Amino acid sequence: MSFLGNLFKKHAENAVTSVQQFLVTIDPETATEAQIAEFSDQLKKASEELAKARADYQREEKAAEEIEALYQKRLQAAGILEQQLSDAADPAQKASISASLEKIVTMLEQMKPDLESEKKEAEDAKQLMDELTGFVEESAQALKQARARLDHAKSDMRRAEIEKERAEKRAKTAEVLAGIKQGSGNFNVALDAMQKKAEQSRIKADAAMTRSKLLTPTDTEKEDANIAAALAKASGESAAPASQSFSDRLAALKKK
Predict the structure, then answer these.
(1) Contact indicator for 256, 250 with CB cutoff of 8 Å
(2) Domains of the chain
(3) Partner of 162 at 20 to 30 A CA spacing, among 83, 147, 200, 202?
(4) Residue 188 zone, left/alpha/beta (φ > 0; ψ -120 to 50; rest)
């Protein structure tokens, strides 16, 4: 790939990473669930690969065992022929056994590399199967932990949201109570003003009543003729005699 092609690929990868980070920031729960889903898909594919690797290993192992068994059988036959060759006395029989032994030894020599190759393929297949097994088991455990952490995070978020709602309700309640207290304070101020005003009016009324009583002649002043005459004289008025006869009264009328 050219320099510009690699540069464009790198920028594209950075852009994808930036978008993913942005999505994680604005919606971490959904982003986490998406990542877990993606990881789950990867685990599923790895599990499928593991199944294939296990089947390949079983096939390779069976083939290697069959070839090994055939090799050991031929090796045993070669040993038998070798013994027969050692025991044979007839030259023709000895020549026949020698020819057969030559053939089977040649087959064993040709078979040996194939046997080693089959064993190596079986070992490689087993190694791949073991690696995939370990990867799948670790991934499954990691996925389980990730889901548990997600569930725990969801629970924490729900608890935090509930606590937030409760805090907001408490704040609103506090505001309402503060308003009630303030209104109650204003109401008390108004009541105090009204009571103060009523007290002032009561004091004024009492003073007026006292003044009225002071200015109004008492019963004693009205009933006692001497006191009444003295008060009239003190005021510059001529008081009527305390007691007048009919003649005096008639004479007084004639003067008018």
Answers:
(1) no
(2) 3-186 (1.10.287.620)
(3) 147
(4) alpha
